[in-house]
Amino acid sequence: MMKSSIEYIANFKTSLDPYNGITILSEDLPKDILEFEQNLKDLIQNVKDNKNLIWMYIDIKKSDFIPIATKFGFTFHSCNSDYILLVKVLKENAIVPNLANHTLGVGAVVINSKNEILLIKEIIRNEYYKLPGGHIDDAEMISQALSREVFEETGVVAEFEKIISIGHFYPHQFHKSNLYVLCLAKPKSLKIDVKDKEEISEAIWLDLDEMFKRDDIHDYTKTIVKSALSGQGLYKSETPILSHLKNEFELFFVN
Hints:
Blueprint: E1 6-9, E2 12-16, E3 21-24, H1 33-47, E4 53-59, H2 66-71, E5 75-79, E6 83-89, E7 102-110, E8 116-122, E9 133-135, H3 142-154, E10 158-169, E11 177-187, E12 200-207, H4 208-213, H5 219-229, E13 234-236, E14 252-254
Parallel strand pairs: 3-4, 7-11
Antiparallel strand pairs: 1-2, 2-3, 4-6, 5-6, 7-9, 8-12, 10-11, 10-13, 13-14
């Protein structure tokens, strides 16, 4: 029988991670700060010789616990809007996985049967018309993000066809890198009805030949469109080769 990864140590419910560390969730912390301090002291004493790391999530509602943790050598690792993740390194050579160091975005080349391309103009950066696109949300697949962004910015329903370009930009937001995935998409509707009126001032269908001639469309956009028209790209695989995984995934291969 496989040994459970859950273990109670010094009144903390802990789970073992792949790096021989233990993780404590915020909901498993005591309510009393004095109890937390004593339990944390006991925990470190109990695991310092046989574990590499202690990970601890602290909810924003328990933010007064943070100075206690840092007093015992915990450092900041990453955070979200409602929690912070701290880590204490117990062994000098312990592997501490890096926090996410890239943001992800997706853009879409959408061409209709009239040989027109879908373009948008932003309210703030409005020098050029550009391809619709934006950030990929947490837990969102590339193909899902593409359809959502196109619909929000133009009102057009679009379906992913293939990846045609990947751009890597640094520095981007929050001093991180950005990976921007450009895709070809097939329109399932044609009516323009901008939903995101706070960011997008205009969306248009523009004849492809005219697009290549205009000065208010950046050469970067024109290069991406040329790539989309070349017929090459990475197509989403329907092969269930990783179907044993519980998490969602998308795989893309040269056709």
